[in-house]
């Protein structure tokens, strides 16, 4: 895995002084860290050979996966990003709640314009009351496939883990690898009107494993001592597929999800959607040997192609023969919804948590796919969706269109004409969302396109019902909310019914990305106490490209600690 990037003290000091002089007007508003960690990220092209082919990929500091950001709870983190690649770039710090630092959140055209080639932007945020495993990744086009890495936030000095201290810790990043250029691929898919091709390989820490061509030696391995317990920090940085993970003959004990401690829960496998993180304890308690760590697809949608070849890494005991046959990791079938539900059922916060009991803003948002009518003069080239239509996705049947400027900047500077504040808090029409959804494609499957936002009052207690729909197909959607974590108080199959829904208001998991069940619903709650412009979207990249997203604007409260600070001086311009 990547090592910590170390810069000279002179460079660090000069940058800190420069940054302080540029942003003194904002410093008083931001929570102060107990110490400061500085990183220098360069977006660079790197030539690599995988799957029998050599190609250029976009990386950070020529590392794939990228460098690990290490910190402790309440630390301030300063990361200077210089774009030396031919493409626009931004970095999103996934799961960092960005308390009063919305300008550093990173999604392109939402909180900032992209960092153009040759430009530099410095991200700054405080890991206020946060610890655990998170990730960072590019938030422009589909660059996330190779531009990603781990964020590891340790507890404060002297504060122990609430579980057995592991003998070692290892970061495991699940990914997808394409032989094609990712920016060009997204453009080609959107121009076609159809769906994306499957990934050429799944990867574990950038390695496809022996099941793929030219990859018998391109395998990740952990050497383990018999009898010892290991902490694995699992991260899904993939683009368009959710994934199962398991280790042959070994139990996984979940102790953290989305950087929040959970009650220990033992399972044979876990499922992570893109953007999700899970920490598991694994004890090397089996006979000395070589055991497979397996990564395979979870595909809940109907008639959608996917990569079916599993990625394999090795959990290898000291004393095992180096090239001994590895015991296979049994993974669920690709569409095993029950396996996903079983793990979700086991996730509970470690202790009772302060779930909002009274609700000020009760929202109901449908999520799903659409097919637009074809109006192209070259339908064979541009209308390759279902029944000759154009694929789209939406929330409350509105496909989000990214503006040509930063929404946060437009909001802060009162620049009109780039967005509206009329996103509906409920669907425009209620029907049997799961079993009676319109499916006369493309006659009644179209969505409305627009840059619509939903405004929330500062301090409002929000309940959000996320309802999957059956238009085109039902599907498990990993929905990520920027700037917040939320309590997952309930979920189920079918249409949400407030009369029969079971809610956990005592110890629900506190997450930042929730897999809304295929043909089902999830209920989340949070307090809107962080002013700014916050993106909520499906973390399947193709769905984001098709418009399955919305923006929440959280208004300022009272006083400096409830007010969005001024933008930084080096904020990129569009």
UniProtKB/TrEMBL annotation:
<keyword id="KW-0325">Glycoprotein</keyword>
<keyword id="KW-0186">Copper</keyword>
<dbReference type="GO" id="GO:0052716">
    <property type="term" value="F:hydroquinone:oxygen oxidoreductase activity"/>
</dbReference>
<keyword id="KW-0964">Secreted</keyword>
<dbReference type="InterPro" id="IPR011706">
    <property type="entry name" value="Cu-oxidase_C"/>
</dbReference>
<dbReference type="InterPro" id="IPR008972">
    <property type="entry name" value="Cupredoxin"/>
</dbReference>
<dbReference type="InterPro" id="IPR034285">
    <property type="entry name" value="CuRO_2_LCC"/>
</dbReference>
<keyword id="KW-0732">Signal</keyword>
<keyword id="KW-0479">Metal-binding</keyword>
<protein>
    <recommendedName>
        <fullName>Laccase</fullName>
        <ecNumber>1.10.3.2</ecNumber>
    </recommendedName>
</protein>
<dbReference type="Pfam" id="PF00394">
    <property type="entry name" value="Cu-oxidase"/>
</dbReference>
<dbReference type="InterPro" id="IPR045087">
    <property type="entry name" value="Cu-oxidase_fam"/>
</dbReference>
<comment type="similarity">
    <text>Belongs to the multicopper oxidase family.</text>
</comment>
<dbReference type="InterPro" id="IPR001117">
    <property type="entry name" value="Cu-oxidase_2nd"/>
</dbReference>
<feature type="domain" description="Plastocyanin-like">
    <location>
        <begin position="168"/>
        <end position="319"/>
    </location>
</feature>
<dbReference type="InterPro" id="IPR034288">
    <property type="entry name" value="CuRO_1_LCC"/>
</dbReference>
<dbReference type="InterPro" id="IPR017761">
    <property type="entry name" value="Laccase"/>
</dbReference>
<dbReference type="Pfam" id="PF07732">
    <property type="entry name" value="Cu-oxidase_3"/>
</dbReference>
<keyword id="KW-0439">Lignin degradation</keyword>
<feature type="domain" description="Plastocyanin-like">
    <location>
        <begin position="449"/>
        <end position="557"/>
    </location>
</feature>
<feature type="domain" description="Plastocyanin-like">
    <location>
        <begin position="43"/>
        <end position="156"/>
    </location>
</feature>
<keyword id="KW-0677">Repeat</keyword>
<keyword id="KW-0560">Oxidoreductase</keyword>
<comment type="function">
    <text>Lignin degradation and detoxification of lignin-derived products.</text>
</comment>
<dbReference type="GO" id="GO:0046274">
    <property type="term" value="P:lignin catabolic process"/>
</dbReference>
<dbReference type="Pfam" id="PF07731">
    <property type="entry name" value="Cu-oxidase_2"/>
</dbReference>
<dbReference type="InterPro" id="IPR002355">
    <property type="entry name" value="Cu_oxidase_Cu_BS"/>
</dbReference>
<keyword id="KW-0052">Apoplast</keyword>
<dbReference type="InterPro" id="IPR011707">
    <property type="entry name" value="Cu-oxidase-like_N"/>
</dbReference>
<dbReference type="GO" id="GO:0005507">
    <property type="term" value="F:copper ion binding"/>
</dbReference>
<dbReference type="InterPro" id="IPR033138">
    <property type="entry name" value="Cu_oxidase_CS"/>
</dbReference>
<dbReference type="InterPro" id="IPR034289">
    <property type="entry name" value="CuRO_3_LCC"/>
</dbReference>
<feature type="signal peptide">
    <location>
        <begin position="1"/>
        <end position="28"/>
    </location>
</feature>
<dbReference type="GO" id="GO:0048046">
    <property type="term" value="C:apoplast"/>
</dbReference>
């Amino acid at each position: 895995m990547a090592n910590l990037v170390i810069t000279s003290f002179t460079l660090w000091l000069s940058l800190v002084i420069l940054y302080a002089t540029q942003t003194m007007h904002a410093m008083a508003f931001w929570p102060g860290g107990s110490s400061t960690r500085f990183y220098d990220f360069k977006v660079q092209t790197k030539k690599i050979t995988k799957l029998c082919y050599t190609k250029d990929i976009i990386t950070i500091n020529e590392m794939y996966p990228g460098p690990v950001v290490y910190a402790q709870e309440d630390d301030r983190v300063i990361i200077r990003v210089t774009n030396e690649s031919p493409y626009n770039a931004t970095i999103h710090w996934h799961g960092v709640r960005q308390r009063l630092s919305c300008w550093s959140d990173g999604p392109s055209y939402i909180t900032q314009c992209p960092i153009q080639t040759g430009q530099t932007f410095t991200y700054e945020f405080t890991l206020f009351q946060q610890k655990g495993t998170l990730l960072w990744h590019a938030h422009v086009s589909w660059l996330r496939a190779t531009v990603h890495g781990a964020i590891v936030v340790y507890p404060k000095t002297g504060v122990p883990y609430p579980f057995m201290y592991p003998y070692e810790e290892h970061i495991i990043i699940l990914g997808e690898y394409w032989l094609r250029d990712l920016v060009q691929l997204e453009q080609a898919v959107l121009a076609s009107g159809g769906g994306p091709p499957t990934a050429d390989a799944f990867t574990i820490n950038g390695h496809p494993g022996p099941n793929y061509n030219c990859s018998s030696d391109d395998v990740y391995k952990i050497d383990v001592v018999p009898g010892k317990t290991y902490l694995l920090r699992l991260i899904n940085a993939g683009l368009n597929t959710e994934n199962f993970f398991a280790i042959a003959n070994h139990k996984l004990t979940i102790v953290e999800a989305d950087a929040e401690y959970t009650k220990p829960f033992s399972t044979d496998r876990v499922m992570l959607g893109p953007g999700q993180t899970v920490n598991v304890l694994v004890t090397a308690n089996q006979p000395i040997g070589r055991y497979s760590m397996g990564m395979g697809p979870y595909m809940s949608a109907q008639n959608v192609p996917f990569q079916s070849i599993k990625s394999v890494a090795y959990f290898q005991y000291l004393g095992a023969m180096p090239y001994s046959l590895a015991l296979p990791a049994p993974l669920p079938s690709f569409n095993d919804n029950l396996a996903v539900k079983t793990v979700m059922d086991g996730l509970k916060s470690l202790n009772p948590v302060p779930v909002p009991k009274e609700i000020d803003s009760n929202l109901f948002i449908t999520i799903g796919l659409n097919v637009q009518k074809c109006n192209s003069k070259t339908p064979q080239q541009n209308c390759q969706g279902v029944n000759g239509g154009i694929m789209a996705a939406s929330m409350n049947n509105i496909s989000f269109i990214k503006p040509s400027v930063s929404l946060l900047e437009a909001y802060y500077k009162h620049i009109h004409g780039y967005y509206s504040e009329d996103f509906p808090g409920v669907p425009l029409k209620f029907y049997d969302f799961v079993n009676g959804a319109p499916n006369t494609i493309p006659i009644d499957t179209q969505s409305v396109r627009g840059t619509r936002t939903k405004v929330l009052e500062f301090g409002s207690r929000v309940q959000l019902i996320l309802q999957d729909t059956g238009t085109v197909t039902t599907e498990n959607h990993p929905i990520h909310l920027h700037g917040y974590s939320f309590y997952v108080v309930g979920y189920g199959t079918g249409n949400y019914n407030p009369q029969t829904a079971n809610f956990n208001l005592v110890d629900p998991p506190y997450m930042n990305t929730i897999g809304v069940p295929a043909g089902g619903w999830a209920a989340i709650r949070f307090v809107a106490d962080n002013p700014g412009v916050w993106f909520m979207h499906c973390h399947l990249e193709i769905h984001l490209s098709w418009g399955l997203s919305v923006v929440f604007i959280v208004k300022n409260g009272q006083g400096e600690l409830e007010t969005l600070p001024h933008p930084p001086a080096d904020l990129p311009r569009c």
